[in-house]
């Protein structure tokens, strides 16, 4: 009984951690890991903008190429950084000691971030950066307060600052609260294009968290088909064993 309860609590931990993340509003996102084009775009964006600091060390380049319908040559030319090959894991290119000196801590591996934090949290995080002069890198985040990293995708999204309004609280005092954002620098993408880019990255990281999900539906069909055939043989075997018993 204790083992059952412990297993149940462990299954809830990712959701509890997300719920305890400061109560920030999360935007809902719908991803489809069977959308090959979205996976390819997400892999390219992740490789170009995220892999310099963050790794997905449980994923191999060769597996990524096979699952995403890419050739070895395409992956080596467009995705793999440095001298790595398709047989290597998807490690970041920044030495851990330098990263710790620059950011105060080593950037985390993102292999299971979509599973541990949720897809909605990750999507909201990618869209949640805003200018904040009090932070070391000049930005903060709506779902990760006092974030310790720069806005890696600012060239795509642009830079925005919060807009505040004054409201009267229950104590009768006036307070300033954040009331949306306004862009001070436009990015190379339109807002809808950046929304899609963020969703593509979430799609790719959702796939990386459990690559077997791509094959599971097909495998399930084969298993059900096998069991159906086995049922026919089992039925006739049962009739043969019990035919002399009245």
Automatic annotation (TrEMBL):
CC terms in the record's Gene Ontology section: membrane
Keywords assigned: Heme, Iron, Membrane, Metal-binding, Signal, Transmembrane, Transmembrane helix
Pfam families given in the database record: Cytochrom_C1
Key word Cell cycle present: no
Source organism superkingdom: Bacteria
Localization per Swiss-Prot or TrEMBL: Membrane
Cofactor comment: Binds 1 heme c group covalently per subunit.
Signal peptide (from-to): 1-19
Residue ranges of every copy of the Cytochrome c domain listed in the record: 37-212
Transmembrane segment boundaries: 219-237
Gene3D superfamilies given in the database record: Cytochrome c-like domain
InterPro entries recorded: Cyt_c-like_dom, Cyt_c-like_dom_sf, Cyt_c1
Residues annotated for heme c binding in this entry: 50, 53-54
SUPFAM superfamilies, alphabetized: Cytochrome c
Any one GO molecular-function label of the UniProt entry: metal ion binding
Listed cofactors: heme c
Listed name of the protein: Ubiquinol-cytochrome c reductase cytochrome c1 subunit
């Amino acid at each position: 009984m204790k083992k059952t309860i412990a297993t149940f609590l462990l299954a809830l931990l990712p959701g509890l951690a997300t719920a305890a993340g400061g109560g920030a509003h999360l935007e809902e996102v719908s991803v489809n890991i069977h959308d090959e084009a979205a996976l390819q775009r997400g892999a390219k964006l992740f490789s170009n903008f995220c892999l310099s600091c963050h790794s997905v060390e449980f994923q191999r380049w060769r597996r990524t190429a096979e699952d995403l319908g890419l050739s070895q040559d395409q992956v080596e030319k467009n995705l793999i950084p440095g001298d790595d090959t398709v047989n290597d894991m998807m490690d970041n290119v920044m030495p851990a000691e330098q990263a710790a000196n620059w950011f105060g801590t080593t950037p985390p591996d993102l292999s299971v971030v979509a599973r541990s934090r949720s897809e909605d949290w990750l999507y909201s995080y990618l869209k949640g950066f805003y200018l904040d002069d009090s932070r070391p890198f000049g930005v903060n985040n709506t779902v990760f307060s006092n974030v310790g990293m720069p806005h890696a995708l600012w060239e795509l999204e642009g830079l925005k600052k919060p807009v505040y309004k004054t409201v009267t609280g229950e104590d009768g005092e006036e307070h300033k609260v954040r009331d949306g954002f306004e862009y001070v620098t436009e990015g190379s993408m339109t807002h809808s294009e950046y929304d899609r880019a963020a969703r593509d990255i979430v799609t790719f990281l959702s796939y990386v968290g459990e690559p077997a999900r791509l094959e599971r539906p097909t495998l399930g069909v084969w298993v059900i088909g096998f069991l159906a055939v086995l049922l026919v043989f089992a039925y006739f075997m049962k009739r043969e064993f019990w035919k002399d018993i009245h």
